[in-house]
Amino acid sequence: HISLPLSPAKHHPAMSLTPLLAASMRPRTNGKKSQGPFDLTYYLKGALAGGLCCSITHGALCPVDVVKTRIQLEPQKYNRGMIAGFGQVIAAEGVGALATGLGPTVVGYFIQGWFKFGGVEFFKINFARKLGEEKAWEMRIPIYLGAAACAEFIADIFLCPLEATRIRLVSNPEYASGLISAMPKIIRDDGFIVGFYSGFGPILLKQIPYTMAKFAVQGAAAEKIWAATGINSNTTSEGTKLAVSLSSGVIAGVAAAIISHPADTLLSLVNKQGAGGEGSIMTRLGRLAYEMGFVKLCLTGLGARCVMIGSLTAGQFGIFDTIMTMTGASKFKFTNPNEQH
Fold first, then answer.
1. What is the pLDDT of residues 54-83, one digit of tens each?
2. Within 13 Å, how many C-alpha atoms sit on residue 49's CB side?
3. What is the pLDDT of residue 314?
4. Mind giving me the DSSP string for 151-182?
5. N or C: which end of the chain has fewer CB within 10 A?
6. Smallest Cα–Cα separation from 262: which of 228, 292, 298, 208?
7. Nearest Cα residue to 301 out of 260, 247, 271
8. At what angle do helices 62-73 and 140-171 cross, to 10 degrees?
C-alpha cells in the first residue's frame, strides 16, 4: 500500500482559506473594470493637466484671439473676415501685434484650467458617488452640466482680472508693455473692482454656458462615437482614445462657441475703455447690447470663434487625456450598470 502525500490544504486549512479571504476583500466590480482611486492626488493631477491644456491651447491660438477681438471691437474697420483681419493687423502694427496679450492669456488660462478641469473632475465624481452607479448613469448629462457650472464659477473668479488685462492690451496695444506693467496701471486708472471685474457678469454669462456645453456635449459625443464604432474604450489603444477625444472635442467646441458667443462679444466690448458710458455694469452692458443689436451680437466674429474654439477644445481634451495617462491617472467614466461585460 502506497500512501499519497496529503495536499497542503488538508494539512493547513488556513492555506486553502487565504485565497478565498483575499478574494472576498477585493472590491466587487461585477465583471467591470474598477475605477479610482479618486483621491487628492488624482484631483491634483486633473488640475495640473487642466492648467497645462488650457494654457498651451489658448497661448497657441493667441493670434486668432487677437484678430477675433479686433473684429468684435472695431467691426467697421475689420469687416473682411478672419484671413483678411490677420493681414490688416500685420500691415498696421507688424507681426508682433499678433502676440498682444500673450502673457495674461497663458497665466490666466493656466489658473482657469486648473480650477475648471480639476473642479469638473471633483464635482462630477462626488455627485456620482452621492447618487450611486445606476442613478449617476441615468443623470450623467445633468451631472456634467452641474459639475461644469460649479467649477467654472470658481475658475472665473481667478480668470476675470487676467482676461480684463488681456482685452485692455489687445484693444489698446500702447496701454502697457505686458501683464506686469498693465495690471498696476489698470488699478491706478479704474480701481480694482471696476478695472478687473467690470466684465465678471459677462464672463459668467459667457463661460458658464460655454463650459456646461463643452463638457456635456463632449461626453455625449464621445459616448456616441464609441457606440457607433463598437470599440471598447477600456481595452482599445491610447491612440484610438486620443482620436475620440479630439473628434468629440471639435463637436463640443463648435456647440459651446455658438452658445456663448453673444456674451463673448459683450465681454470684449465692456472691457474697452469708456465702452457703454457711465453707470453700473448691467446698465453699460444693456447699452452696448442695444447699440449693437441682437443679430450682430450673435454673429459678429462667430466664424472665427468657431474655428478657434473648435480646434482649441479638441486640443484641450487631447492634451488633458494625454497628461492624465502620463501621470498614471485613470479618468473617471460613467458606467452603465445594465451593460454586459
1. 999 989 988 988 887 788 778 888 888 778
2. 28
3. 94
4. HHHHHHHHHHHHHHHHHHHHH-TTS-SSHHHH
5. N
6. 298
7. 260
8. 70
Q: Which grid cell sits at 119? A: 473642479
Do the Cβ atoms of 221 and 250 come closer than 8 Å? no
| Residue type (1 letter), 90 | I
> What span, in angstroms and rounded, lies between the C-alpha atoms of 282 and 270?
10
Helix, strand or coil, per DSSP, at residue 135: helix
CA distance 53 to 55: 6
For residue 45, how many other CB atoms are within 10 A of its CB? 19
Residues in CB range of 332: below 8 A, 6 or more apart: 35, 36, 38, 121, 124, 125, 128
Q: Is the pLDDT of residue 7 over 60?
A: no
Residues 6+ apart with CB under 8 A from 159: 108, 109, 111, 112, 203, 207
Amino acid, res. 315: G
Residue 173's φ and ψ, nearest 5 degrees, are -60, -20
Identify the CA nearest to 318 among candidates 260, 238, 256, 254.
238
| pLDDT tens digits along 137-167 | 999 999 999 999 999 999 999 989 988 888 8
Give the containing element (helix H, strand E) for 201: helix 200-229
Q: In this predicted structure, what is the pLDDT of residue 269?
A: 77
Residue 125 neighbours by CB under 8 Å, 6+ apart = 38, 332
- The confidence band for 272, taking pLDDT boundaries of 50, 70 and 90, is low
Residue 94 CA to residue 179 CA, distance in Å, equals: 20
Q: What is the pTM of this model?
A: 0.74
pLDDT at 39 over 90: yes
